Structure formats: structure tokens, C-alpha cells
Amino acid sequence: MYVNPASFRKQMEVIGKYFEIVSLEKVCKGSICNEKPSCVLTFDDGWNDFYTNAYPVLKKYRYPATVFLPTGYIGSNRMLWTDALARLMVKRKFDAGFLLDYVKDESIRKKLNKKYNRSNLHDLIHLVKTYSIEHNQEIYRNILMENDLMNECNSDFLTWEQIFEMKESGLIHFGSHTSEHVILTSVSVERARAELHHSRELLLNKKLVCSDFIPFCYPNGTNSKVVAEEVKSAGYSCAVTVRRRWNDLSTDIYGLNRIGMHQDVSFSPSMTVLRLGSTPVDNGSG
Fold it and tell me: Which CA distances in Å does 147 have to 43, 84, 139, 224?
């Protein structure tokens, strides 16, 4: 999911016309009183291009935003396993047959002979994501070692220096995306608790959050009632999903909805308006 810089600038112009851009903290604490509907801007994963492309636009308009960080990757040269897989698929001209050496699940193996390309590469990554986190990490390690990608691990994540600079602006706020970008429904409760704890403590130690408001974003948007309770028990103040709905007063604060504004559905002002206008209202049942 991506948005090119020109489209992002147009999105901000459209959203600012129809909405009052407010911080996530203000919404969650109920401290808003606007004539226009409120809108919160959030960004997942802490990619470096947020600093180079999005941050200058947000500064121009003085729009607040929240960036959710997979804290174990920030300040490192590590790649997410999904990025390692994508890079290797490009090098191998989108032939997924090599994955047969790593994936043992027959239901997945049968689909690896499909023809992939840039436009449907996401389908392959989504397919492999159905494996458990342990299998994904094993695939990741093997891919890096056996395909000489170790030397290509130039981090695409924000640096701590960039993060501190943006925090000083007073516009950009931060939250947790776990430590290792783990899909919490796919691991044990003990592992989930460790992920939540380590990430929260690091954000607190680096003074990127205050204990009275620490937001969380479910990796992959995947959550459950059990996971939501763990997030709450770990000391987080709210949590966002990828469920496409508007939020209202009935929305669970640990299951906040969002509207994804990726390039193919919001590349022009009219498409941005259509994307927003066609989003259903939350009825409190989800």
C-alpha cells in the first residue's frame, strides 16, 4: 500500500477542506469541539519516506499525525520478511517456485505455481502470511542467507534522529506497532504480551509517549477480543484496526476504524472524495 507524493498533497488539500484535522489523543480523550467533522491522520510501519515525503506536507498545513512504529526495526538495518520476499521476487522475475523449498503446507504450495507480477505480488505475500509467525521468520532467515540479500539490508525505516526531530515539531506523535511487527493473533499469549511490553517500554524510555496516552496499531490490522484485552491490559490507551468504517461514539476505543487511502483508490481529488463518501458508518457491532 502506497501513495505517491503528488497524490498525498492533493489528499491533504481535500481532507483539509472538509474536515478538521486533529490528533488521535484529542479524539480519544473527547477534547474536540469542531464545526466540521474530525479527521485523524495515521501512518503505519515508520517508513523512511514518511519523513522525506509526508512530513514536509504535514508541516506546511500544520496537520498533526500519528506514526506507529515497529520498534525493533527502528534504527536498524533489518527488513521485514515481506520486504525480503518482495525484493527476491523482483530479482527472480516474479517466479515463486523457489518458495517450494521453504513452504511445506500443501494448500499453499499448490498456489505457488501461479504467475505473479508487480500488480499481484501482494497476493503472494498475503498467501505466505497465512503461515505461522515462526514459519515466516524461518523463511525470512533462509531467504536472506541463501539468496545473498544480507548485504542489501539497507533499512527503509525511520531513524531515531528523524523521529526525535519530528516529535519536536509538536505535530507528529508516535505509537506502538509491536516490537517485531508480529501478527498477534498468530502467536501465543505470552509472546503477544512480550511484544506489547517491549515496544511500550522503549517508547516510554525514549520519551516518545507519555504514560497517560500510548496508542497502538494492530499489525496487519488483525485482532481479536483476546488480543484487544491484552493491548488494554498492557497499558495502551487505544488501538486502531484497518476495518474501513467511520467511527462514532459507539466505536470501541480498542477497535478504532480507519479508511485506507492508498494510491489506486485516491489518486485524484475526486477519487479521494469518493473513497471517503462511500465509507459506511460504524454501527457499533464490529
Answer: 31, 10, 12, 36
Point out the domain boundary residue: 106, 123, 152.
Answer: 152
Q: Which three cell numbers stand for residue 153?
A: 539490508
Task: Read off the amino acid at residue 268.
Answer: S
Do 67 and 193 share a domain, yes or no?
yes
**More confident of the two residues 58 and 273:** 58
**Grid coordinates representing 114?**
501461479
Q: Which residue has the cell 464490529?
A: 286
Q: Which of 29-33, 143-147, 255-259, 275-279 has the highest mean pLDDT?
A: 255-259
H or E stretch covering 168: helix 160-168
CATH number at residue 24: 3.20.20.370
Which residues lie closer than 8 Å to 128 by C-beta, 6 or more apart?
85, 99, 103, 108, 136, 139
Residue 137's domain spans which residues?
Answer: 81-152
Q: What is the pLDDT of residue 286?
A: 45
- DSSP element (H, E) containing 275: helix 269-277
Q: For the chain, what is the total number of helices (H) and then of strands (E)?
A: 12, 7
Q: Which of 127, 152, 177 is the last residue of a domain?
A: 152
Which pLDDT score is estimated for 190? 95
Name the pTM for this structure: 0.86
pLDDT band at 106 (very low <50, low <70, confident <90, very high): confident
Q: Is 9 helix (H, G, I), strand (E, B) or coil?
A: helix
